[in-house]
Amino acid sequence: MDLTTLPTLTALSDCVTIVEKDDVKIVRIIHDKAVAGIALHGGHVLSFQPKGQPDLIWMSDNALFDGKAALRGGIPICWPWFGRIAAPAHGFARSTEWTLIEHRENEQGVIISLGLETSEQTLAIWPHHFQVRLLVEVRETLQITLEVLNTDQKEWTFSGALHTYLNVGDIRQTETTGMGLEYLDNLNHGQKTAGTNSLVLTDTIDRVYTQPNEQIQVKDPVLNRTLVVKNHGHNSAVLWNPWSQGAQTMADMKDDGYQTMLCVESTWHANRLEDGKILQPGERYQLSTTLSVQ
Ligand code: TA6
Questions:
Q1: pTM of the model
Q2: Ligand 1 centroid to 83 CA: how many Å?
Q3: Residue 43 contacts residue 77 (beta carbons within 8 Å)
Q4: What does residue 21 show for φ and ψ, rounded to 5 degrees?
Q5: Binding pocket residue ranges, ligand 1, CB within 6 Å
Q6: Ligand 1 atom closest to the CA of 267, numbered from 1
């Protein structure tokens, strides 16, 4: 997504400005090492372009920047749950306004910190007290860390994902390795299945890999690069592409949008809300992902 043409609302420093697209405010970073953008709506990374590279992140041309809907593409923050185990799907964090807490920069890059806390609105959906920080570190690589803190008197459980949409030249020529072998197949009632190490997609896929390698590699001969994804604090990694039949059902994705995207997600997966990761009062937990070009 080209952020450079969006008009500036406020300049926060030499590298960091607040810009606006339709009804969504965006923290825009223009640094020697990379250009990036994070929407305050959803705490959603929209773009990450290290110098000399096409965007690592895919954004839908039809994404709705109305400040209400979750944005299609980018890195949606799925929290406090992943999937459709409660409503709204993938939790409320991706469709809630976050606050800009801090920005820092040096010659290596820029660090942005966003926050989300309990409000009447969140309590109506999920009756627990929390504080969440999203640390976005924009350098030659992109690192995103979601840190959740239980500020309640009682324990609660959560699941979630950093639901990264990677930008690829042609999905049919893209080879993914490192997802591990065992997966739960969401296209077959979550059935536990044994897979292969190398994946070149020819149809829709929606899988929760339960034993991913430390590094996942996405080899893209069209853009002539290999993307490397390193996740931490996860219990699984999700691979998703809706293919043409899925894209046709989504108003915020063009029919051919699936051809240039692949979701590789850092996930804490649970089949039910109550089976999620337990967090005691005062306890913190971090889920992160790092993207780089090899
Ligand atoms: O992460 C894969 C997935 O959970 C799929 O099942 C698919 O529906 C996708 O996320 C997108 O979900 P969304 O609610 O953004 O349409």
A1: 0.98
A2: 7
A3: yes
A4: -125, 120
A5: 70, 83, 89-90, 163, 186, 206, 238, 240, 263, 265
A6: 1
Please give, one letter per residue, the 3-state secondary structure of 14-57: CCEEEEEECCEEEEEEECCCEEEEEECECCEEEEEEECCCCCCE
CA angle 77–22–290, rounded 5-degree value: 30
The set of catalytic residues is: 163, 265
Q: What is the pLDDT of residues 58-107, one digit of tens each?
A: 999 999 999 999 999 999 999 999 999 999 999 999 999 999 999 999 99
State how far the alpha carbon of 107 is from the alpha carbons of 70, 90, 104, 110, in Å: 33, 36, 11, 8
Distance in angstroms (rounded) separating the CA atoms of residues 245 and 148 = 36
Please provide the size of the chain in residues: 294
Separation of 206 CA from ligand 1 center, angstroms? 8
Residue range 239-285, pLDDT digits in tens? 999 999 999 999 999 999 999 999 999 999 999 999 999 999 999 99
Tokens matching residue 200:
């070149």
C-alpha of 190 from chain center:
22
